[in-house]
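Appendix B: complex inputs.
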Amino acid sequence: MIGVVIGVFLIVSLMSLSEGVKGAILSQLKMMGKDLIMVFPGEISDLATTFAGGLELSEDDIAAVEKADGVLSTVPMNYKAESMRHEGRVKTLLVNGVSLEEGLDVLKNDFGWKLSSGNWPISAKKEIIVGSAVPVDIFPGMEVGDEVTINGKELEVVGILESVGSKQDDSSVTVDLELFKEITGQTKGAKMIIAKVKPGYNTDDVVENIKENLTDTRKRVRGADTPPFSVLSSEKVAGIVNSILGMIQAAIIGFASIAIIVGGIGIMNTMYMSVHERIKEIGIMKAVGAKNKTITTIFLIESGIFGLFGGAGGIILGLIFAKTIEIYFQFHPFLYLKASVGPGLILFSLVFSFLLGCVAGYLPSRSAAKMNPVEALRYE
Amino acid sequence: MLLINMAEEIIKLENIWKTYLLGEVKLTVLKNVSLAIKRGSFTAIMGPSGSGKSTLLHLIGALDTPSKGNIYIDGQDVSRLSEDNLAQIRGKKIGFVFQQFNLLPNLTALENVMLPMTFQGVPEKQRMERAKELLISLGLEARINHKPNELSGGERQRIAIARSLANNPEVIVADEPTGNLDSATGKKIMEVFIDLHKKEKKTVIVVTHDPNIAGYTEETINIKDGEIVKNGITANKYLWSKNS
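Resulting structure:
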């Protein structure tokens, strides 16, 4: 039975958490409109390389995206971890650089950014907006109008954002791209470009246009040795996230299946022992008129209930584990992770473990039913 | 003629052989046994241990099938029936009482008595009423919700008798029913069987090695080494009828 508990525990806890991760990522992606296209350096199939950094989009690339047919506007984005000082305290956080002139509308309309207090920064001024978690977790007590210092540059906090649903984003600060270059010394290029599609254009067509333009530019500038890049619509990104998490979930189900098979064998063993211990009872029941089918049913239900209890135990442990992880993430923010345990998952686990018990109990039940009543009655 | 015969003989054994294979050794427990038991009779099957009397009882009670020969219960040949059909006949026509009581330890007295009716698909309410009725008629009204291990041997055997009567079978088959009881309690249990025979008109068959117990019955079938002893069917002295 312990195997069933572990198996169902794995399924419930890991499935609920990976559902939660999926939910958290997809909800962020959903905020973006369908008319957004993201351009990353590197192959999207090689995510590690892309996010490890190093690869960047050049100024030529930015221009190429801008010129592509069907692109309404482009928002180059960059980010870098920097130390920020506020009232004597120094913390390291992520500084985003966004071209506010073109990008503010995208941030407001497509990323769902809203101010909880203060104003949006003006691109020419040395102004900074901070995520909702910054005045709470990182610099408690920070207010609009405060001064902060990054790399010796003094900046004024002009606005505090409402939460956008990701702890990582909420813990970052954002400045105009020009100011970003000035602070960080990264004067060229961007880590990502967001392009908005002109009304009336098909997003997928525009993706192709951007790819063509980028390839041409890169060939012209660097010859045959064109470094790879990825152009993705927001829908496509959601699809990729979905498929990656799908693979992870499949792996989890694989591991859990092994535990469950072990559990099933455990139940079978227990049932064989139970049949053996109750040989005499089987003889008595047969003597007073129980048919073979009745005996089979009695033992099948019993082993099904065994499985059901194992499953219930697994669900309870899994829920406790998933909730613990959820609470952990509330204190150690990385993602707003919600352990999503739907009634579907619970029902599935219960039905599944009951059926598992029945399957595991089938052979022992048959052996009980086939027992000769006279021999069973004689058994001591 | 046949009808009259059927009415007279509720159980009939014709040239019954029962052989067990113990490894390579063939063990013949019953050798060419023929007998008939009349409807409404009270019969003892007597013999020393190892004589084959329990095997004979199992065959009469449709718990087992013969290696050779035919067994008729209520006119139906049961010697070649499937296990499930035998279970059906046992459930409806035969009530078993054992030396070891053989009650299910996890069930209460009431539930034990209800069990044979459950297997016959009797509705729960009816089952419960019938079981209570039987337990009360055997003087067990205070023990209805007790489990077997809370009861004395005599009480347990009375529950077993109540269980054997649950589906109102015509035949009660008892295997050394007093073997685990002291003589006073044993006497009381035998009186229950006498009542069943006299008042309820049941056919009662008791297997015993004790001549005193056999003395309660109308007739005794003596068996030795798997064979019915010649002229071994003796009429008893109706001890009980004189006493009652």
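Residues 234-277 of chain A form the longest helix (44 residues).
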